[in-house]
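#structure-requests
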Amino acid sequence: MSYLDENARAAIRPIKRMVEDEFLARPGVIGVDIGEKVTGGRPTGRAAIVVYVCAKGPEHPRQIPVEVGGVPTDVVAESIVLHRARITHASGENPVAAERHPVLRGGIGIGPARSFRVVPPEVERAGEYVIAGTLGAFAVTLDEPGKVLGLTTFHVGCVDDSWSVGDEFVHPSRVDGGVPGADEVAVLDRAALAGAVSAAGLRMGDRPLRAEVLDIGAITGSAPAVIGSSVRKRGRTTQLTYGVVESTDATVRLDFGDGIGPRTLRDQIRVHSSERFGDHGDSGAVLVDADNRVVGLYVAGSGPTGFANPVGPVLRQLDVELLTPGVPESRRPGRGA
């Protein structure tokens, strides 16, 4: 697969930004990106504004112009959904074998201790649901030195508009058999849902932790995602998967459910894998490059395609820096790091 150079992207970027909100307002449009135009299933080598639409025929937009400002468009059928896991509290379903880790690391399952009332059309049947996602990595707060937070997404950490600071989190999640109180590992400390970011910071409790991601190793810092580079993520559901960064210009419109509704995330990282990159329960996993630097926070996807917040805005909006083995002892947690 070929990758567009930065000069081609830079030329298209202002045109894409000018039209993306207009396109997103059209029925069926769920994303706007920059990519290579494909015709008849074959790449053309031409840079294009890529418009993602819902797969169902009636949801397709009535008209997307063939070009904008001299830049061709490419309409692609895609399904982009938030990848938290949600089951009815009473179902007894357990989608994956529950992992219990006495020492916490990134890449493991986590979820709110409370349940959530969800009604149609968001779900097929009204009921109490429990949520699972992934604890991505650890960070140190800049406003309160010494406080360690676990990073996950807003839609795992807050779920809906009923959240409050101090909400309890358990590992494993209640989806995977976690018990409120007995399995508490953190409480909600802060969150952000704006611009490029769907993120939450969980204040870690007494459980020992390490500044690493399971199956990946110690985190060495953060870096911008580089188009064409290989990345890995370790999520609660699909565990260790690999992909290649294809774009850092994706704008996607995602439905955060009752009480919050559709929100637009901009400048997202788009990753493609030869297999399934992520699935429900993987939201909150961090994308890590070949040097074990975090480049993104996984939020959504569909099959081989994944979307992630760029790590820079996540850290800035939560006012944190990543916890690494090199962080001075005075900035690290007092136990188990």
